[in-house]
Amino acid sequence: MSEAVMNASAPVLRAARCSRCRGHSFPAHVPGCRHCGAPPDALETIDCMGAVALRNVVTVHAPLAPGLAVPCVIGEVELCPGVIEEVLIDVSDEAQLALGMWLRPVWRAAEEGESGNWVFRPEDKDMKELSA
Amino acid sequence: MSTLLQQRPVHVIGIGMHPYQFSSDTPYIQLGLRAVREALQDAGLAWPQVQSAFVGTAALGMAAGRVMLRHLGSTGLEVAQVENASASGSTAFRLACLQVASGERDVVLAVGVDKFGDGRRAVLKDGLAPLSPTANIPLVKFALLARRCMREQGLRPEDLAQVAVKNHGNAARNPYAQFRKPRTLAQVLASPRVAGDLTAMQCCPRGEGAAAVIVVSDDALRRLGLDRRRAVRVLSSVASSEELAGDSPALVELVRTSSAAALGQADVGASELDLVELHDAFSIEELLYSEAVGICAPGEGAAYLARGASRIGGECAVNASGGLIGMGHPLGPTGIGQVAEIARQLRGEAHGRQHPGARLGLAHMIGLGSVAIAHVLARP
Fold first, then answer.
1. Taking a C-beta distance cutoff of 8 angstroms, is the pair B21, B30 a contact?
2. Is the ipTM of this complex over 0.90?
C-alpha cells in the first residue's frame, strides 16, 4: 500500500508535484521528479482523492497477473495533470461505463491474508456535485 | 556527422538460428550452440577466429554466455552478457557492430538465447506499488492503445486481426518460426479474447530459441577471404528511450524518432525500404509502427496492410519472418532473429518467402515498452 498515505481513519491517494518544474509524478514517494529529475526534497505531495474522468477502458479476459480476478475492467484516468494511470474499475461490466464518466478512488480493504487495493467507482450525481 | 559505422564499415557475414518453439526440456546451451555453429558455418569462419561475443538474454541469469560458449572451445575471447528486456538481442547486435566499427575487434558474435520462465522484472522490485494490478502488463497497455485507436481512427477489430493473418501466413513459410500454420481472418477473430479487442492469435507466444549473427570489418573480409557477395552492410545503429510525450502515445513517438534517426544516419528514406522487421508483439503495434517508421502516412497503417503493400512481394514487406506474432518472441533472440531475417532476405536466400529485389531493410525493436533499437541494413 505504498501509494496510499495512511491517516488516522483511511488511506489517502496522493501524488507528487515538483516545486522546480511543477510537473507531477506518481506515486507520492517517487525518488525523483519524472520530468526534471529533482530529488525528493523538491517534491510536495498532493491529494488525488477527487473524482477523475474516464479516458479509456477495456475488459481483461485472461488472468495475466497472479491474483488478478477476471474478467475485470481496466481504465485510464488522468490522476493529476499529465499523469495518466491505469486503474481497476469496480464495475461488473464495461457496458456500465461511458468515456468522460466521473470516477472516484476508493480504498478496498484487505481480506484476511491479502493486501488492500485502490479501485475506482463511478461517482453518483451527489458526490460529483460535492467534488466540483 | 560521420558515424563510426560510416568510417569503418561493418558487415553481417554469418547468420544462424535455432527455431523458436514452445517451452521444452532442451537446455539453453543446446539452443544457443546450434545457432552459433550455424552462423559460423554460414560465414565460413572457425570459432577461434571470433574475437568477442555479446550474449543477449533476458531470463537465463548470470553468466549464461560463458557457460554456453565454453563448449565451442577454449579461445580466450571476450564475453559480455546483455540484458535489455525484449531488446536484449538487438542491443547485443548494436554493441557488436560498434565494437567492430570502433576498430577494437574485427570479428564479433552477437547471439541471443532464452528460455521462458526465469525472468525477474526489476519494475516489480522498485518499491513503488502500482495503482492497478495490470500496470506492468504490456498486453493491457496495448489493448488500451488499440481501443483508443479504434475510437479515434475508426479502426475495426478486423483491421487489427489482419495483421495476424499476414504474419501467421509469413511464419508458415519460415522454418525457424514457432507457428507454422496460416490463419484465416475468421480464425484470428474467433480465438479467445485476451484483453479488449485483442484475441490470442493477435498476441505473440511465449517460447524459447536462439539466433546468432557474426559481424566483421572490411579488413576481416579481405584478410580471412570471406564471401563479400554475401556480406550485408550495417548502415546505421540507433538506440534511445521514451520521453514524456503529452497526449500522444509515448511509445509510438519513440518508434518515430528512433526510426527517423536510423534512416537519417543511413541516408535512406523510409520509402526506399524494402523490408521492415518490427515489434508486433500485439497486432495494433504493426499498424501504428508502420506509420511511425514512415512507410505509410499517419493514420494509413490499416489501409496500407489492406491493399497488400506490407505483404511479401508488396511495396515493403513488413515482418516477412512472421514477426513476433508468428515467428515468436523468445526475448533474447528476437532482435537478432530480425537481423538474420533481413540479412537472409537481402542476400536473396529466404527461400519460400523471398521478397523480390530487396535492397534495404530496417530492424526495429522495442524493450519493455520504453527503449528502442534500430538498424538499417543494405544488400551486398
1. no
2. yes
